[in-house]
Amino acid sequence: MSLLDASGGGICHKEEVHASSSLPKHLDSDSPLLSVRSVAKRYGARIGCKDISFDLWPGEVLGVVGESGSGKSTLLGCLSGQLRPDGGEVLFDTRDRGPVDTLRMSEPQRRHLARTDWAFVHQNPRDGLRMGVSAGGNVGERLMATGARHYGRIREAASDWLDRVEIDTGRIDDRPRQFSGGMQQRLQIARNLVSGPRLAFMDEPTGGLDVSVQARLLDLLRGLVRDMGLSAVLVTHDLAVVRLLADRLIVMKDGRVVETGLTDQVLDDPQHGYTQLLVSSVLQV
Amino acid sequence: MSDQAYNFAYLDEDTKRMIRRAILKGIAVPGYQVPFASREMPMPYGWGTGGVQVTAAVMTPEDVLKVIDQGADDTTNAVSIRKFFQRTAGVATTERTSEATMIQTRHRIPETPLTSDQILVYQVPIPEPMRFLEPRETETRRIHALADYGLMQVRLYEDIARHGEIATSYAYPVEVAGRYVMDPSPIPKFDNPKLDDCPAIQLFGAGREQRIYALPPYTHVRSLDFEDHPFRATKADHACAICGSASSYLDEVITDDAGGRMFVCSDTDYCAQNAKGGA
Ligand SMILES: Nc1ncnc2c1ncn2[C@@H]1O[C@H](COP(=O)(O)OP(=O)(O)OP(=O)(O)O)[C@@H](O)[C@H]1O
Ligand SMILES: [Mg+2]
Question: Do B262 and B253 meet the contact criterion of CB atoms below 8 Å apart?
Answer without folding.
Answer: yes
